[in-house]
Amino acid sequence: MEKIKKIVLAYSGGLDTSVILLWLKEKYKAEVITYTANLGQGERLDFIEEKAKRTGATKVYVEDVREEFCNDYVFPALKAGALYEDRYPLATALARPLITKGLVKTAEEEGAEAIAHGSTGKGNDQVRFELTARALNPDLIILAPVREWELGSREEEVRYAQKRNIPVEITEEKPYSLDRNLWGVSIECGPLEDPWKEPPADAYEITSSPEEAPDKTAYIEIEFRQGIPIKLNGKTLPPHLLIEELNRIGGENGVGRIDMVENRLVGIKSREIYEAPAAVILHAAHHELEKLNLDKDTFHFKGNIASKYAELVYNGLWLSPLRQALDSFVDQTQEFISGKIRVKLYKGMCQVAGRESPYSLYEKRLATYTEEDIFDQKASKGFIEIWGLPLKTLARLRKIQKEQK
Ligand code: ARG
């Protein structure tokens, strides 16, 4: 076994990472430093320092990375139109590389030889942590205790902690596994493991059911500048507040619930539900603005790379050269993606109701059937003649060949 003297642990303050802290100290006789990123997980993080220290951490880092998360992770994915398997806006997947960046930076500053995370051996998150860490610092040792230890259940974890005189609260937990940040909530396990069963009401954290949502339509207006949302209902807001506000309005109206069976990287299909009101609204609005402002070829081509981008993010390849090259392409396409989108929310439905932009390529005088029309209908005759020439030629030749037989 490697001699490790210092470990930086990705710490949430929950049962798993608390027990991991104890386990690491005991197994490696090493100093454990914790690192927690504030990604807008909807809970106050002021308990972290006290709790981590009480559990035996020698030093505690809590870093507010919400702005960085929005600007450098969420918005690039939004601009790329990245939805994994057409639906999942990638909240968990986008957060992992940023958490890892914090872990690696802390390890380097502290002179630690290793970093540790609490992901299981069955999920995608282990891959995201470890690939990002390797890309940032190929010499760091990466520890994943949950893949190795013998603790098979919550009860065993609690007993492990109690035996070492570390009090862990035995709270009445919901049967779900949850990951949350400002871009969305990811929920799995418990009753969700039966893909035929509708998710129970208590599985959801931040959205009302469409049935309980108000009977009144809500209209919102989002303004984008170069592909990035900058105003909500006419008010300029910093990214994380704009997203939080959209989560609130969308959630209230039952928007943003996603129920899917997805293909994990490790070969397992899993049923997972997501709540991502802001992501669902912003993706719809952004896409609509691109429809208005992008030329046809760019719009179509960009649609083809959206799923590749999502796949890279999902599969832990955030720091791959391809993702970075795709970002350059996407940014180039966003130069004129500025304008306003009006969205209508009603009982789970999110629909674009209006669009407006100084860079719109919509030309009313071409589209109209009124006397304002400037389109030369006669020109279509020659166009169709040539566009259809291959088909016409083929049909003619086949006809002759058939007659000769
Ligand atoms: N399936 C999602 C992903 O791979 C979320 C994973 C974390 N989910 C959770 N409930 N802990 O990105």
Characterise this structure.
The chain has 405 residues and is an alpha/beta fold. The protein has 2 domains: 6-178, Rossmann fold, CATH 3.40.50.620; 183-356, Argininosuccinate synthetase, chain A, domain 2 (Alpha-Beta Complex), CATH 3.90.1260. It contains 14 helices and 14 strands. The protein has a 5-stranded parallel beta sheet with strand order 3-2-1-4-5, sandwiched between helices. The protein is elongated and about 90 Å long. The relative contact order is 0.12. It binds arginine. The site of arginine (ARG) has 11 residues, from helix 4, strand 6 and strand 7.
How far do the termini sit from each other? 81 Å
* Beta-strand fraction estimate: 15-25%
Biggest sheet record: 5 strands, parallel
Helical fraction equals 40-55%
- What is the alpha-carbon Rg in Å? 26 Å
Ligand kinds: arginine
Low-confidence stretches: none
How many β strands by DSSP?
A: 14
Order of the strands making up the biggest sheet: 3-2-1-4-5
- How many discrete domains? 2
* CATH architecture label of the largest domain: Alpha-Beta Complex
Global outline: elongated
Q: For the record, what is the CATH homologous superfamily label of the largest domain?
A: Argininosuccinate synthetase, chain A, domain 2
- CATH overall fold name of the largest domain: Argininosuccinate synthetase, chain A, domain 2
Helical stretch tally: 14
By secondary-structure content and strand pairing, the structural class works out as alpha/beta
CATH class of the largest domain: Alpha Beta
